[in-house]
């Protein structure tokens, strides 16, 4: 495995672990304050927002790559 790929995978795993911890903390806090039903709904909202944010980021990256290709051509 290349050093860059190893670093990327390590960084990705660390970020994934951190995101999981944050989500678990959020779920626990909402459950304690408002109960399990609202915790379930809030978790769904959190995940939906995460997906939307990922889609926006992917779209921006794609647009940037397309601009770079156009400039290079």
How would you describe the overall organization of this protein?
The chain has two helices and no strands. The protein has 73 residues and is an all-alpha fold. It has one domain. Helix 1 runs antiparallel to helix 2.
Q: Overall mean pLDDT score?
A: 87
Overall geometric form? elongated
Question: What's the helix count?
Answer: 2
The share of residues in helices is over 70%
> Over all CA atoms, what is the radius of gyration?
18 Å
Encode the helix/strand succession as letters: HH
The major β-sheet equals: none
Distance between the termini: 32 Å
Low-confidence stretches: none
Structural class: mainly alpha
β-strand percent reads under 5%
- Let me know the number of strands: 0
Overall domain count: 1
Compact description:
The chain is mostly helical and 73 residues long.
Secondary structure elements and their pairing?
Blueprint: H1 3-34, H2 36-72
Observed structural traits:
73 residues; elongated; mainly alpha
């Amino acid at each position: 495995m290349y050093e860059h790929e190893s670093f990327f995978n390590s960084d990705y795993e660390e970020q994934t672990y951190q995101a999981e911890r944050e989500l678990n903390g959020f779920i626990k806090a909402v459950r304690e304050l408002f109960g399990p039903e609202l915790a379930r709904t809030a978790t769904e909202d959190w995940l939906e927002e995460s997906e939307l944010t990922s889609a926006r980021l992917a779209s921006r990256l794609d647009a940037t790559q397309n601009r770079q290709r156009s400039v290079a051509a």
